[in-house]
Design a protein that fits this description.
The chain is of the alpha/beta class. The protein has one domain: 3-Layer(aba) Sandwich (Rossmann fold). Helices cover about 30% and strands about 15% of the residues. The protein is built from 14 helices and 15 strands. The strands form 3 sheets. Strands 3-4-6-8-7-9-10-13-14-15 form a 10-stranded mixed sheet, sandwiched between helices. Strands 1-2-5 form a 3-stranded mixed sheet, with no helix packed on it. A two-stranded parallel sheet has the order 11-12.
């Protein structure tokens, strides 16, 4: 009897929470069921961790497009992050990176020193940070973050990612996990044969589109505007943003885009990052898997798949095999250069940039100016930046990914001896990014003016300590 009374009181409380608009943490209806978040350590922010946006892609659903989420009956208390896609473990050891020059970095020490969370094929989860007072009808701007990691690693809640700073500025942040490596991007003739459209390999990209669709369908209940979603990402996440801009499946769904260290386009129309064709990836898949049947492939463990891929990489003198989306005409129309040429890229505000000591093909210079000019010719002059702060601590400088501490306002989590000027730079950058997410223009009160890139590199915003 006591238990029945307790459950009844809990149900009554949840019902009241769901209907009381003054409650800063109500139960919210979403696709699949009801969810309630938890209060962040930052006052005035509610976070929802580990919301499923699709069915677990396991068993027969391995190497298939993401399916509708499996409904649940009770209120999902979103108080912990979901598992991440299988990936090589981030393990520190005696072979840690030796810093010889600007741009070198030990990524395990930088971002993954606390180890990895649980890994699983069941990894299609997203996370949301919102202002506690945000409610349906507020139509706050929304930002959807896609993590990097060469399409083989990373997850949506790495220690440098956080939505508190954006929520405090009135922006709702969504971060996602998606399938990586062979689970996300393996194409194969047999996989194409079983598909109604005779396609395969773009599963990780389809996950990203599914997360975008989920956000459009549900974010209004969190106080967001489904028609004002900025998609942004860094490294492979930036490549993902490029690909989403070139997908027939995202038309009219993306309001703005930010491309961080995702490469540019050189005057010859290529940057070494243009996606391969489906036929090329099918052949690669056939080479990798040999005579294995589809049933056998679906029964292989992650470790077994990694051994197959590792043998191929070693035989071809490759440090690793980077599988990525392929041009199949349905999920991906083409590379960014080709899509700009045929005016396929949507006419939306775009921000892009790199770090001072970035990887060579993502570094600022003629390719960025050329890309800006091509976008400008189509009526889409982008905002371009270069992150120039060389981080103290070990000589890594403004390395690839170094801006992430600043973009998310998480510099206090960084092990490096940062100073108050770093905090000020971070605040300025979050302000720029937030303004862009709100209005398609990074400028705002108290900020140095940032011009759209209409005069080549002369209009690049230099982000450094003041």
């Amino acid at each position: 009897m006591k238990h029945s009374f307790a459950f009844a009181m809990i149900a009554l409380c949840l019902s009241a929470c769901a209907t009381d608009s003054s409650n800063p943490n109500p139960v919210i209806d979403i696709t699949g069921g009801k969810v309630q978040g938890i209060f962040s350590e930052t006052p005035g922010v509610v976070v929802y961790k580990g919301i499923p946006y699709a069915a677990p892609p396991i068993g027969e659903l391995r190497w298939k497009a993401p399916q509708p989420v499996v409904p649940w009956d009770t209120v999902l208390i979103a108080d912990h992050f979901g598992p991440i896609s299988f990936q090589p473990p981030h393990v520190a050891g005696p072979d840690s990176v030796v810093i010889n020059q600007y741009g070198d970095v030990d990524y395990v020490k930088e971002f993954f020193s606390e180890g990895d969370p649980e890994m699983s094929e069941d990894c299609l989860y997203l996370n949301i940070w919102k202002p506690a007072e945000a409610k349906k009808g507020d139509k706050l701007p929304v930002a959807l973050w896609i993590h990097g990691g060469a399409f083989i690693a990373g997850f949506g809640y790495e220690k440098e990612f956080d939505g508190d700073a954006y929520a405090k500025r009135g922006v709702i942040l969504v971060t996602i996990n998606y399938r990586l490596g062979a689970f996300g991007f393996l194409a194969h003739p047999e996989l194409s044969a079983e598909n109604a459209d005779h396609l395969s390999g773009n599963y990780g990209m389809l996950d990203q589109i599914k997360a975008l669709d989920w956000t459009r369908e549900n974010i209004a209940n969190f106080g967001g505007d489904p028609d004002n979603i900025t998609v942004f990402g860094q490294s492979a996440g930036a490549m993902s943003v490029r690909n989403l801009l070139c997908s027939p499946l995202t038309k009219g769904k993306i309001a703005k885009a930010i491309i961080q260290s995702g490469g540019a386009i050189s005057p010859d129309g290529n940057d070494g990052m243009e996606a391969a064709s489906l036929a090329q990836y099918e052949q690669l898949g056939k080479t990798l898997m040999g005579d294995l049947s589809l049933d056998k492939m679906r029964s292989m463990s992650y470790q077994e798949l990694q051994e197959v891929i590792g043998h191929y990489a070693a035989a071809n003198n490759m440090p690793f095999l980077m599988l990525q989306p392929n041009v199949d005409g349905k999920v991906l129309e083409g590379g960014l250069a080709a899509c700009i040429d045929k005016d396929f890229v949507p006419h939306i505000p775009i921000m892009m940039g790199s770090t001072l000591d970035d990887m060579a093909f993502t570094r600022m210079g003629e390719p960025y100016a050329y890309l800006a000019s091509r976008l400008r010719e189509k009526g889409k002059a982008p905002y371009v930046y270069e992150f120039r702060r060389r981080l103290p601590g070990n000589g890594s400088g403004a390395f690839h990914s170094s801006e992430l501490w600043y973009v998310f306002g998480t510099t206090k989590r960084c092990w490096r001896p940062l100073v108050e000027a770093d905090e000020a730079l971070s605040r300025r950058m979050v302000d720029y990014w937030s303004n862009f997410m709100k209005q398609g223009d990074p400028n705002g009160p108290g900020l140095p003016e940032w011009n759209a890139c209409t005069n080549g590199l002369d209009d690049v915003m230099q982000l450094d300590l003041e």
